[in-house]
Amino acid sequence: MFKITSKMCLNGDVGIHGNMFGGRMLSLMDESAAIYAKLYTGEEHIVSRKFSGVEFHSPVKLGDILEVYATNPKRGNTSFSFDIVVVVGSTRRFEAACVFVAVDRNGNKKSIDWSKAKEI
After folding, report:
1. Residue 40 near residue 84, CB atoms below 8 Å
2. What are 9-37's pLDDT values in tens digits?
3. What are phi and psi of 115, to 5 degrees?
4. What is the pTM for the complete model shown?
5. Helix (H) or strand (E) segment spanning residue 41
6. I need a labelling partner for 76 at 20 to 30 A (CA). Which of 15, 61, 94, 98 fits?
């Protein structure tokens, strides 16, 4: 697993029950996944295509430190897929499968130049 980033759950991240908002978690996952996709592929423009199998295992609480990891990278012609996992301590709290697509400056799908890739 490749560690992408860490984040602390802060006051603005939690709702009335003291749990991190699901939407906040999804936003963190999308941003973290985009960082990994861009670093791995070396593509200047790569966009979220699909998140599937999204699973919230247990709540994230105020003050928890979330560690975000990527695993199981798979190369396609125009796409790059992998799993994203959030861990607090030694417990998986969230996971999803991600697909990102390389696009040109006009937003049209394009082939990924895998010669620029950095396996991380």
Report:
1. no
2. 999 999 999 999 999 999 999 999 999 99
3. -70, -20
4. 0.92
5. helix 22-41
6. 94
Distances in whole angstroms, Cα of residue 17 to Cα of each of 11, 87, 93, 110:
12, 21, 17, 44
| Rounded Cα–Cα distance for residues 32 and 50 (Å) | 14
pLDDT at 116 over 90: no
pLDDT at 34: 97
* CA atoms of 70 and 97, how far apart (whole Å): 10
- Say how far apart CA 39 and CA 35 lie, in whole Å: 6
Residues constituting the chain: 120
Token pair for 69:
């990891």
In the chain, the DSSP E strands lie at: 2-8, 46-56, 65-75, 79-88, 91-102
Parallel, antiparallel, or unpaired: how do β-strands 2-8 and 46-56 relate?
A: unpaired
3-state secondary structure of 85: strand
